[in-house]
C-alpha cells in the first residue's frame, strides 16, 4: 500500500507519478507530530479517538475492522503456534486533530478458526531509523518456533525541504510464541536499488524447493510497475533474481502488494497495478487488485506465461490481497475492503477500513474461484429457508439484522427473465442495494446508488460482469452491517463493497421482470465474531 | 419497429425468436377491438385518452411527442413542398381501457425550420387488407410534385388460432401538396419472400445513379438478422439485389430500421440488431441502434467493408434512427427517444414516446459525429454565461425551467481531476442526473439512478464511454422537461435519455474532486416550439 497522505499531498503525488515531476512540496506538515509509539501520545488525545469510534452505527460484526484510526492492507497472514495470524496496516491517529499525529505500524489479530479473531495489539511500530516514517506492508512465514516477518520500512530524507526522497528498506523481524516481535537490526535488502525508484515494497515471502523467495513490488526508473524476485538460503542474505517476465503488458506506474503461489497445478500472480484506465466495465475503481494465471513460474528465467490479467474482485471496495496456506492445505485470501484515498463516511467517526471475510481460493479453467471459508458455519444461528415462484416484488423475511449468509438459487424457463434481489432495503423498498440478473443481456449488475450514504459516486455506482446464462444461477451474499460480499455462481465472480444504510434497512426483496422465476433460498443469521 | 404487443405477448415472442418455437398463442385478444380509423371509436373513449394526457407534468417543449397513445419510430423523414416532413408510428389507443382498441398508423408533422413543428394529423391508417394489422415503418422521397411513401404493411393469418403467421408487404403511397395520402392498391413487394421469415420490414428508399434503392430489414430462415437491398427503375417493379455483405458478424435475430447513406466520402449503414447481449459497457439497453462506417457500398456485389459496428448513441433511450438530406445538403438524423417495451412512467397518463431533437451528422476518422441542428438558435431566449474556478459544489443559475441548450467547457491542469455536473437537481442537490468526467480513469459516466422516477433500472442506471483526456472537455446538453441529450467533445459521443423529475428540480450544480477545474459555460433558455 502506498503512503497515506492528506488528500492534497496525494493529489500532488499523483501528478508526480503520471507526469514525471510536476511539483513537489516539503513534508514538514505531514510529520510535524510524528510519534513512534502510542504511549507517546497524551491519553486524552487517544481517548478522543476511541470515543469517537463508539458513536458509529456502522460497526461490523464478522469482519476485522480498525479499533480506531485507519486500517490498511492485511499483512503477515499466516498460521503459527496453533493460531491463524493476521496483521494489518494501522494508522491509529490518522483522523486525529489538535494535533494530527503521524504513526504507522502493524496491528495484530489471531484466531483459532478464521472467524473468531482476538485483537492482540500493536505488533510493530515505526521506531527505527529504517521504518521511522512507516512500518509498511509485508508477510510472514513460520521458521522453527518463531514467525519470521518480512516487511518494508519507509524512510524519507530531507523532509524539511522540497527535495525529499524515499528510502525503502526490506526489513526482518521475529515474533515468538508469546506474540512478542523483535526487529532485526539491519535491513535484509537496502533500497532504493539500482534501476528502480524508491517505490519498492510489500515483500511476500514463501519457501519453494528448499529456498526462500520474496516477491517485491517495484517501480522502474521509467515509471512503470513491475515485481522483483529475491532469493535467500538463510533469510539473511538476499539476492535479486530479477524481474518477473509476463506475456501481458505491465500497465500502470507501480505494482503493489504482489503475491505468487501455486494452486491446482497452475501458477497464480497477484498484483495491484496503479494507474490503470477504465476499459469497458473493467478497472472502474480508483485502484485495482489483479491476478494472472498460467503454468507455474519458471524460477530459472522468471518467465510467467499467463496471457492476461483481470480483476480479482469486480466490486467497489477491494485492494491489497494477501494469501496464506492453512494447515489443511487450503489457500486462503485476505484483502482490504477499501480503495485508497476513499472518501469514506466512517472518517467522521475517526476510523475506517475493514478486511474481507477470509476466502478459500481455487483455480478452474484458468479462472480464480473464491468462496467464503467453510468455517463460516460456526457463526450460524437462526436459519430461514424457502421456495417461491416470483414475478412481482416479494419480501423474504430473514431476521432484523444485516448480518447473514444468504444463498439464492434462481431458475427460470424464460430466456429474458430479469431477476432482481434488493438487500439493505427499507420497508417500502425505495432504497436498497440492488442486484440484477439480466438474462436478456447476459449481465449481472450491482447498483449501490440507492444504498444509503453517497460514497465514491465519481467512480460510478454500478459494477457488472458477464453472466453465464444457464437454467439456474446461484448467488451467495455474505452480508454484514456495512458490507456485502457477493459470490456469483459459486465464486466465479465476486463483488465486494461497503454499504452504509440505517439500521432499519434490513429488508430483503425479490422480484422478476419478464415471466417468472423459481427462487430457492437459505439464509443464515450470523452471530458476532468472538474476540476472546 | 417490431409489433407492439402487451407485455405478455412480447415475452412469448422473444422466446419464439431466440429458441425457435417455444410456444405460440392465438392473437384473439390482441385484435378483439381492432379499428382502422379513430372515427370508428366513440368520442367518449377518445376524450378519455386526451384528458388523461393533459394531466402529465412531463410534457416536452422542444421535442415531438405523442398527442395521446404511443409514439414509435420516426417515418418518412423528408423535405418536400417547402417543408420538412416527419411522420411517426402512432398507436393512439395503445393505453385505452374498456375496451383496449388496436389501431396503428402514421402521424404527420411538418416544419419550415426543423425546430417548430406543426401537427398535421393522421397520414395513414391500417385500413387495407395489406396493412390491416399495422401501417408499419417506412420512408419517403419526393417524386415530382408528390412525396412517395414506401412502408411495411403488416397482416396476420389465422389470428384466431395458435397457428397464425405474419404477412409482410412493402407498400407504396403518394402524398400530394395538400398533405393528403393515397395508398397504391397493390404491394410493391409481396412477402414473406423465399429464404426469409415474416420479419421483413422498414423499407428505406433512396435514389442513386438514376436508380431507386430500398434497404429492408429481414430475418433469415436461420433466425439471424440481415438487410436486403432492392432496386427499381420506376418505383413500381422492385427486384431483389440481395443481402448486404459485411466484414463483421451479423449478430442478432433481426435487423430493424436499416438505413444506408454516403457522407464525407464514406458509406454509412445504420441498423437495429435485436437480441444482442451486453459486452463491457456496450449494448446495455434492451435493444440497440448501431452504425458501421466503411468505404462506399459496392452496389454490384453489395459488399460493405466496414470492419465493426457500434452504438449510435450511448444513452438509455435511443432506437429506430432515420435520416434525410436537407435542402442545403446536410444529413439530418431523427430517432425514437425510447426503447421498445419500456416500462415508461408516462404510460399512466395514457401516452408515451418522443423523437430526439434533430441532429446533423458527419463522419470523422470513421466515427459518426452528431450535433443538434444549428436551427436550435431560433429557440434561444435568455442567455447565461460565466467563467469560474470550481472545486466544491457550486450552483450555476440559469432560469427555472429545464429547457435549455447548455454548453460547458471544463479545463484543468490536474490529471486526476474528476468533474461532476448535476442537472435536474433539487435545491440541496440530493437528487439529480449526474454527469461525471473522470479523468483519472478516462471515463465519462451518466448516472440516472437518482434522477426522479425509477425507470428501467433492470438494464442498469449508468451509461459510460471512454473519455479522451485532453486539457479541455466540452459537454453540451439539450435539456427538455423530461429528457437530456448529452454531446461529449462536439458530438463524438452522445447520450440520450428520458428523465422524470418534479418541476422544482431545475437546478444545475458543478463540482470537482482532486484539484480544481476552470469551467466556462454558456446556457440558453429555449422557448417552446411553435405548432402553428
From TrEMBL, chains A, B:
Residues 401-522 form the Glycosyl hydrolase family 32 C-terminal domain. Keywords: Carbohydrate metabolism, Cytoplasm, Glycosidase, Hydrolase. Its EC number is 3.2.1.26. It is found in: Cytoplasm. Pathway: Glycan biosynthesis; sucrose metabolism. GO terms for molecular function: beta-fructofuranosidase activity. Residues 63-372 form the Glycosyl hydrolase family 32 N-terminal domain. InterPro entries: ConA-like_dom_sf, GH32_Enzymes, Glyco_hydro_32, Glyco_hydro_32_C, Glyco_hydro_32_N, Glyco_hydro_beta-prop_sf, Suc6P_hydrolase. It comes from the Bacteria. GO terms for biological process: sucrose metabolic process. Belongs to the glycosyl hydrolase 32 family. This is Sucrose-6-phosphate hydrolase.
Amino acid at each position: 500500500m502506498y503512503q497515506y497522505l492528506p488528500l492534497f499531498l496525494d493529489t500532488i503525488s499523483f501528478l508526480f507519478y503520471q507526469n514525471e515531476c510536476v511539483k513537489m512540496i516539503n513534508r514538514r506538515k505531514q510529520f510535524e507530530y510524528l510519534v513512534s509509539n502510542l504511549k507517546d501520545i497524551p491519553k486524552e488525545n487517544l481517548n478522543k479517538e476511541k470515543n469517537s469510534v463508539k458513536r458509529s452505527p456502522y460497526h461490523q460484526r464478522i469482519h476485522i475492522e480498525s479499533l480506531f484510526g485507519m486500517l490498511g492492507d492485511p499483512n503477515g497472514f499466516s498460521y503459527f503456534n496453533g493460531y491463524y495470524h493476521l496483521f494489518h496496516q494501522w494508522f491509529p491517529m490518522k483522523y486525529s486533530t489538535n494535533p494530527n499525529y503521524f504513526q504507522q505500524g502493524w496491528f495484530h489479530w489471531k484466531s483459532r478458526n478464521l472467524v473468531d479473531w482476538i485483537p492482540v495489539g500493536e505488533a510493530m511500530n515505526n521506531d527505527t531509523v529504517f521504518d521511522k516514517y512507516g512500518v509498511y506492508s509485508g508477510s510472514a512465514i513460520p521458521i522453527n518456533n518463531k514467525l519470521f516477518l518480512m516487511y518494508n520500512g519507509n524512510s524519507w530524507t530531507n523532509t524539511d525541504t522540497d527535495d525529499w526522497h524515499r528510502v525503502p528498506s526490506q526489513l526482518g523481524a521475529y515474533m515468538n510464541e508469546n506474540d512478542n516481535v523483535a526487529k532485526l537490526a539491519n535491513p535484509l535488502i537496502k533500497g532504493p536499488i539500482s534501476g528502480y525508484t524508491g517505490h519498492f515494497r510489500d515483500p511476500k515471502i514463501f519457501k519453494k524447493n528448499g529456498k526462500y523467495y520474496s516477491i517485491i513490488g517495484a517501480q522502474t526508473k521509467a515509471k512503470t510497475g513491475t515485481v522483483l524476485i529475491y532469493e535467500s538460503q538463510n533469510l539473511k542474505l538476499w539476492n535479486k533474481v530479477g524481474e518477473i517476465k509476463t506475456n501481458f503488458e505491465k500497465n500502470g506506474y507501480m505494482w503493489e502488494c504482489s503475491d505468487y503461489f501455486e494452486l491446482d497445478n497452475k501458477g497464480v500472480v497477484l498484483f495491484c497495478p496503479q494507474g490503470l484506465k477504465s476499459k469497458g466495465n473493467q478497472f472502474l475503481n480508483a485502484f485495482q487488485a489483479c491476478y494472472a494465471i498460467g503454468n507455474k513460474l519458471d524460477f530459472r528465467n522468471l518467465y510467467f506465461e499467463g496471457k492476461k490479467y483481470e480483476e480479482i474482485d469486480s466490486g467497489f471496495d477491494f485492494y491489497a490481497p494477501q494469501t496464506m496456506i492453512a494447515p489443511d492445505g487450503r489457500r486462503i485470501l485476505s484483502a482490504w475492503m477499501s480503495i485508497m484515498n476513499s472518501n469514506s463516511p466512517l472518517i467522521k467517526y475517526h476510523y475506517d477500513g475493514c478486511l474481507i471475510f477470509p476466502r478459500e481460493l481455487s483455480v478452474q479453467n484458468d479462472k480464480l474461484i473464491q468462496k467464503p471459508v467453510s468455517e463460516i458455519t460456526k457463526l450460524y444461528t437462526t436459519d430461514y429457508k424457502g421456495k417461491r415462484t416470483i414475478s412481482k416484488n416479494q419480501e423474504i423475511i430473514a431476521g432484523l439484522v444485516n448480518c447473514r449468509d444468504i444463498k439464492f438459487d434462481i431458475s427460470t424457463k424464460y430466456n429474458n427473465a430479469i431477476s432482481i434481489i434488493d438487500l439493505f432495503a427499507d420497508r417500502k423498498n425505495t432504497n436498497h442495494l440492488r442486484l440484477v440478473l439480466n438474462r436478456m443481456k447476459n449481465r449481472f449488475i450491482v447498483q449501490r446508488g440507492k444504498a444509503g450514504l453517497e460514497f465514491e459516486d465519481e467512480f460510478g455506482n454500478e459494477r457488472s460482469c458477464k453472466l453465464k446464462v444457464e437454467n439456474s444461477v446461484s448467488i451467495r451474499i455474505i452480508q454484514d452491517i456495512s458490507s456485502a460480499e457477493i459470490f456469483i455462481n459459486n465464486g466465479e465472480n465476486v463483488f465486494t463493497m461497503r454499504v452504509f444504510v440505517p439500521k432499519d434497512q434490513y429488508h430483503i426483496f425479490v422480484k422478476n421482470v419478464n415471466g417468472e422465476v423459481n427462487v430457492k433460498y437459505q439464509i443464515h443469521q450470523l452471530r458476532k465474531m468472538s474476540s476472546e
